[in-house]
Amino acid sequence: MPDTTPTVAATADVDPRASIGPGTRVWHLAQVREGARVGADCIVGRGAYIGPGVVVGDRCKIQNHALVYEPAVLEDGAFVGPAVVFTNDYYPRAINPDGSLKSADDWHAVGVTVRTGASIGARSVCVAPVTIGRWALVAAGSVVTKDVPDFALVAGVPARRIRWVGRAGAPLDADGDHTWLCPTTGERYVEQDGLLRLAQ
What we know:
This protein is an all-beta fold. The chain has strands spanning 7-8, 13-14, 19-20, 25-26, 31-32, 37-38, 43-44, 49-50, 55-56, 61-62, 67-68, 73-74, 79-80, 85-86, 112-114, 119-120, 125-126, 130-132, 137-138, 143-144, 152-155, 160-164, 173-174, 179-181, 188-192, 195-198. 0% of the residues lie in helices and 32% in strands.
């Protein structure tokens, strides 16, 4: 029977109130804060940060130096590339108008949601509150300010949809009227009302 105990590097900082699933690996200098829940078979890269109460599904990859601020939610199979940042404040300030240092009671956190299988490319910024749809792909260096539809490839500042992608991540090829084909898997997709779905 394989060993499913989580592997946590000696230099990682995992709060005892956090939950780390079986088979998950937390690498050097990563920090997982109190109340965070990381699922099974995940990878938390070197120097990554997972904030208090963040929820990470199974088989996710959070690459080196990614900053996943609360109250983010990552569904199963999400990929967060190196140095990605999830924001969590509409109007960030260090101090109140009276000059006093802001505390946790002086603001209301808003989060980023990453749906199943979606990928966020290196050094992208997701400005909360946004949802990255299922199997969507955010190109490296993008700034996401609006929700991303399922299967959309978005790029730029601000990010805009430039293609459709399939579950394998490859851009889809047009295959007739409102239908698309994955060159990698052969899966077919149907576009309707500006949204894409896997054909039945």
